[in-house]
From TrEMBL:
Domain GST N-terminal: 1-82
Name of the protein this chain belongs to: Glutathione S-transferase
Source organism, top-level taxon: Bacteria
Keyword annotations: Transferase
Originating species: Phaeobacter gallaeciensis
Gene Ontology molecular function: transferase activity
Amino acid sequence: MKLYYSPTSPYVRKVMVLLHETGQLGDVELFNAPTTPLNPAEGLLGTNPLTKVPALERPDGPTLFDSRVICAFLDARGNGGLYPEGAAKWETLTLEAMADGILDAALLVTYESRLRPEDKQWDSWADAQWAKIERACAALNQRWMAHLAGPLDMGQIAVACALGYVDFRHDARNWRHGNDGLAAWFKEFESRPSLAETRPPEG
């Protein structure tokens, strides 16, 4: 299998953490394909028409994307158990969706400052995206701590990757303010080897 990736992509990081946790890292060839909406990677054009990473090319089926599809596939392939059965499954999926929502909003803020010309940047738009992140962090802190403290699952991994990306690109906005429980959980969780080994490089 070939994984099209970028080392700074938080969506890719979810997949990489799962590969570490399920012992499948050696089964995947990594192909660096840095891409942005303004400069899509040419190597992705024939693989993912959306030209986004991650994309997982398989020898026995169509290329898979996006990160949630890839993570579900790899978890099933490796019998990882990161998507539990029963009622807990829906909590895990909801938590993963919330984490990806944080990433979506954080990435829009990143694009606003890094890709849009300075004279066309819209502060109110960026602030509205950040407000989504604040609300999600507050909800995690108030409603989801018991789940986050439970057995390892994909929801926890997704949240950790989302918070890690917010630190990576938007640390000055301080998501930890008022979210002491979430901050304490993240400090401990990000020390896992799978998280430590997939931290994005500066840049």
